[in-house]
From TrEMBL:
<feature type="transmembrane region" description="Helical">
    <location>
        <begin position="33"/>
        <end position="51"/>
    </location>
</feature>
<keyword id="KW-1133">Transmembrane helix</keyword>
<dbReference type="Pfam" id="PF00893">
    <property type="entry name" value="Multi_Drug_Res"/>
</dbReference>
<feature type="transmembrane region" description="Helical">
    <location>
        <begin position="63"/>
        <end position="84"/>
    </location>
</feature>
<feature type="transmembrane region" description="Helical">
    <location>
        <begin position="90"/>
        <end position="109"/>
    </location>
</feature>
<keyword id="KW-0472">Membrane</keyword>
<keyword id="KW-0812">Transmembrane</keyword>
<dbReference type="InterPro" id="IPR000390">
    <property type="entry name" value="Small_drug/metabolite_transptr"/>
</dbReference>
<dbReference type="GO" id="GO:0005886">
    <property type="term" value="C:plasma membrane"/>
</dbReference>
<dbReference type="InterPro" id="IPR037185">
    <property type="entry name" value="EmrE-like"/>
</dbReference>
<protein>
    <submittedName>
        <fullName>Small multidrug resistance pump</fullName>
    </submittedName>
</protein>
<dbReference type="InterPro" id="IPR045324">
    <property type="entry name" value="Small_multidrug_res"/>
</dbReference>
<dbReference type="GO" id="GO:0022857">
    <property type="term" value="F:transmembrane transporter activity"/>
</dbReference>
<keyword id="KW-0813">Transport</keyword>
<comment type="similarity">
    <text>Belongs to the drug/metabolite transporter (DMT) superfamily. Small multidrug resistance (SMR) (TC 2.A.7.1) family.</text>
</comment>
<keyword id="KW-1003">Cell membrane</keyword>
Length: 113
């Protein structure tokens, strides 16, 4: 698998997972049908894309999962601040920077053959 196709699969998994998480926030405990459906579709598509990524090889599970969760966490945090006016502290920003550094370190490691 090319690095580009791996990036597209992983990026798509992140985007759909974050979309599902944002929909979860407005689903009111799965009582609102449209946000509930969007949550399930978002998570389902994310898992499907992530499974395709792993099936095609070229990315280690730990690296792929750390990237999915790390980038997803950062994106969901930023989106929640912008969309829902959730607070963001300096300590949380430092935590996101540490998380980003960890994902970067994992991404620069050796790739499986």
């Amino acid at each position: 698998m090319t690095r580009s196709s791996s990036a597209w699969l992983l990026g798509g998994a992140v985007v759909s997972e974050v979309a599902g998480t944002l929909a979860l926030r407005v689903s009111d405990g799965f009582t609102r049908p449209l946000p509930t459906a969007a949550t399930l579709v978002g998570y389902g598509v994310s898992l499907w894309l992530f499974a395709r990524l792993l099936d095609r090889g070229g990315v280690a599970l730990g690296t792929a999962y750390a990237t999915l969760t790390g980038v997803g966490l950062a994106a969901a945090t930023v989106a929640s601040v912008l969309l829902f006016r959730d607070p963001l502290t300096v300590v949380q920003l430092v935590g996101m920077a540490v998380l980003a550094a960890g994902v970067l370190v994992l991404q620069t490691g050796p790739r499986p053959s």
